[in-house]
Amino acid sequence: MPETEGRAPRADATRNRDQLLAVATRMFASADAEPSMRAIAREAGVGIATLYRHFPTRESLVDAVYRDQVARLTTGARELLDRLPPAAAMRRWMDLFGAWIATKNGMLDTLLAMIESGEIAHAQTRTELLAAITTVLDAGRVAGDLRNDVTADDIAASLIGIFTVAPRPAHEAKAGRLLNLLMDGLRPPPG
């Protein structure tokens, strides 16, 4: 029975949707190729009909995972700043970015087709991510623990480079070392 428009979804429906998103995200991140919808449903412990009720197409699932990950990155910047000094928040945010990049592994073909068709606005995502980086950079500048001459574009380009040569999860240690080197370069010189 479909949910009545305007009415909140049932708790079990919300739980199922959240579980499907979490499992799909994890499977996309660890897969070399796109996992089947059946495999995602099975891993989430729900029937295929439940998956299709929430996500009628592969594209709708990829879109939901992609948007969820972008939202986690953008809100994550502010949440990290609430808990950590800006330099530490930036380093943790870089890990979130790496996880976001890794999630694309198992949904790349679908994601690229959706970007090409205009279903996903790549430029909007870039704007949101640069704003998140800027939020942390600005806080770091005020606190004096991040350089004044670095831009969000500089950091984004560096992160893309790092995760291109050290993709996660296969090269976790190498990515971590490179991220730490990047952070060293983001700190203002002493004195």
From TrEMBL:
Pfam families: TetR_C_43, TetR_N. The keyword Flavoprotein does not apply. Keywords: DNA-binding, Transcription, Transcription regulation. Gene3D superfamilies: Tetracycline Repressor, domain 2. Residues 36-55 bind DNA. It comes from the Bacteria. Residues 14-73 form the HTH tetR-type domain. InterPro entries: Homeodomain-like_sf, HTH-type_TetR-like_transc_reg, HTH_TetR, Tet_transcr_reg_TetR-rel_C_sf, TetR_SbtR-like_C. PANTHER family: HTH-TYPE TRANSCRIPTIONAL REGULATOR BETI, HTH-TYPE TRANSCRIPTIONAL REGULATOR RUTR. This is TetR/AcrR family transcriptional regulator. It comes from Amycolatopsis thermalba.
